[in-house]
Amino acid sequence: MKLAVFDFDSTLMDGETIDFFAQELGFKDEVVAITERAMAGELDFYASLVERVALLKGLPQSKVEEICQSLPMMNGAREVVAGLKEKGYKIICFSGGFRDATKPACEKLGIDADFSNFLHSENGVLTGAVGGEMMYSEAKGDMITRIQNLLGIDRKNTLVVGDGANDLSMFAHADTRVAFCGKPILREAATHCVDVKDLREILKIV
Fold it and tell me: 20 to 30 A Cα–Cα from 180, which one of 100, 194, 195, 206?
């Protein structure tokens, strides 16, 4: 058995989920600027996540679900999942974003499991609070080692794919590390770089 772990935003999905939410409230430019700095490693991921989600206060949960059902998948997402499964990979998604987005997308793609964060809501409206499994910069590294131990898979048989600084911690536990249209800080830690928006390129690597 082999393990493939993908980031979600700007990796499996073409864009940042929180930017789509912020656009509904007129805060997109402000949120995009914070996201870009966080992905470049210039801001603490936890602090930036809390700051960005606070701006979503007042967004109806129904709008969250509507947006998440129509997020654009990255070119080649379905094909790379199918191709890796044929090669014996278990495929998991780690996201510093939100389960409202990862759950439906991963079900459509046939991904085995997803780990992400939860947006808090009351009376059908977001409160601006967030909690979950992927809120810290080291969260993906911590989770991947637990999954490797659980499945009995070593780093030699582990593939990781991501684009930003919060993927660094999981890169430390895999021998095949793909920076997908990645930020410079992640490219330095990668064994392979894919610079076109086509996930099928990963099948050439494995």
Answer: 100
**Catalytic positions, please?**
7, 9
Hey, is 198 helix, strand or coil? coil
Q: Which helix (H) or strand (E) holds 38?
A: helix 28-39
Return the CATH class of domain 2-205.
Answer: alpha beta
Please identify every stretch of the chain with a pLDDT value under 70, giving residue numbers as ranges: none
Question: Nearest-CA neighbor of 132 among 103, 173, 108?
Answer: 103
Pull the structure tokens for residue 176.
């095949």
Q: Computed from CA positions of residues 137, 4, 152, 105, in that sequence, does the dihedral angle turn out positive or negative?
A: positive
Predicted TM-score (pTM) of the model is 0.94
pLDDT tens digit sequence for 153-165: 999 999 999 999 9
Q: CA-CA distance, 8 to 16, in Å (whole number)? A: 9
d(CA 174, CA 29): 34
**Is there a contact between 129 and 147 (Cβ–Cβ < 8 Å)?**
no
Q: What are the boundaries of each domain within the chain? A: 2-205
CB atoms within 10 A of CB 66: 11
> Phi-psi bin for 33: left (phi > 0), alpha (psi -120 to 50), beta?
alpha
Distance CA 177, CA 166 (A): 14
